[in-house]
Amino acid sequence: xxxxxxxxxxxxxxxxxxxxxxxxxxxxxxxxxxxxxxxxxxxxxxxxxxxxxxxxxxxxxxxxxxxxxxxxxxxxxxxxxxxxxxxxxxxxxxxxxxxxxxxxxxxxxxxxxxxxxxxxxxxxxxxxxxxxxxxxxxxxxxxxxxxxxxxxxxxxxxxxxxxxxxxxxxxxxxxxxxxxxxxxxxxxxxxxxxxxxxxxxxxxxxxxxxxxxxxxxxxxxxxxxxxxxxxxxxxxxxxxxxxxxxx
Length: 247
Description:
- This is Transporter substrate-binding domain-containing protein.
- By secondary structure, this protein is an alpha/beta fold.
- Helices cover 32% and strands 27% of the residues.
- It folds into two domains: 2-95 and 193-229, D-Maltodextrin-Binding Protein, domain 2 (3-Layer(aba) Sandwich), CATH 3.40.190; 97-190, 3-Layer(aba) Sandwich (D-Maltodextrin-Binding Protein, domain 2).
- The chain contains seven helices and ten strands.
- The longest helix is centred in the C-terminal third of the chain and has 22 residues, at 221-242.
């Protein structure tokens, strides 16, 4: 099976940049698939890195066999997603399920619960999950990156931002300054990532494809994901603590 993924870093799912797969800590999603290749008889995976649109282009033309993608109706024309017996999307077989919460300090969380006040939220540009925040209380402030957004929260320039707070049903603090900031549950937005196959690969390898879906659903994805994030967030916390105050 030829698996295609983006040639840009999307930490911690995909690490490194360029065409080569890192030999050490290649990313959570890659480690998961490498584990599956060792555990499932008859499964051999070749990893190919390309620009994301090229991955989709090659999947349509059966030049690669699989990608990890979110569900969209138009993708059904060339991607095979896991489905139930009734033909509905089977979210139980998703590789990952990400829940996103509002994140801020303890005062922000308490005021969210107890007041109807307005709040300034730092939101990275192009952050699709922010579309789910339709409450008129929230005033959105654009930032260039997620870290910029969390820096503003940490400095109390804004009240809150968006952070990853749940992975595969497990509550986590998968965001910068996790030792200082809190998440407001339940998640306001949930998204799923699926291993999807090309039409031709699924047609020729249906039993293997279904077995891989089943095994992926059992993998402790959240634990590995958090292990990847741990050192990064410790460094961010250390940076925030040790940085001299400007005067």
